[in-house]
Design a protein that fits this description.
Oligomer: single chain
Order of helices and strands: EHEHHEHEHHEH
Strand content: 5-15%
Largest sheet: 5 strands, parallel
Helix content: 40-55%
Strand order of the largest sheet: 2-3-1-4-5
């Protein structure tokens, strides 16, 4: 990308935001921030118990990510956030108007398999259905690209870099 953008790596749980985000940041030469680290403790406890977050739960989290992204404006950065609904992405853009979204997409079975194989994460596979039910894919008027998550992390990252570079051309 010619201009340093803040890229929000989005998608349902298990698509690889935490894996692809740092790889993408390294490839672009910008810092990475893990979106889960912006969650208040109450959100983590709620999700750990198998209860999906509601819009009220997400507001302070989205605002914190938006503040980080705003601080990186013109400098570039990569941050992960599920950003499942348009209103969530709009809220992030309120803080960082030039943010670009990278939507990681994939087959539900593949995502569930990856979720089941990870350890130490607070999001149970039981919440995957609620994630897909909530998901509103990027719209044509939103700055961003979608990339399929099949393949290795390196392959996904290279597809993401190529797609993001096409946004600038």
């Amino acid at each position: 990308m010619s201009t340093p953008h803040v890229v929000v790596v989005m998608g349902v749980a298990g698509t690889g935001k935490t894996t692809i985000g740092p790889l993408l940041a390294a490839e672009l030469g910008v810092p990475y921030a893990e979106g889960d680290d912006f969650h208040p403790a109450a959100n983590v406890a709620k999700m750990s118990s198998g209860t999906p977050l509601d819009d009220d739960d997400r507001r302070p989290w989205l605002d914190a990510i938006g503040r980080w992204a705003h601080g990186r404006a013109g400098l570039g950065g990569v941050v992960s956030s599920s950003a499942l609904k348009r209103i969530y992405r709009d809220r992030l853009r309120d803080g960082a108007p030039d943010a670009v979204f990278l939507h990681l997409t994939g087959d539900r079975a593949l995502i569930e398999k990856r979720m089941a194989g990870r350890t130490g994460h607070f999001m149970p596979t039981a919440l995957l259905d609620s994630q897909f039910a909530t998901l509103q894919p990027l719209q044509a008027d939103e700055a961003g690209v979608s990339v399929d998550v099949s393949g290795t992390p390196e392959e996904i990252t290279q597809r993401a870099v190529a797609a993001l570079r096409r946004l600038d051309s």
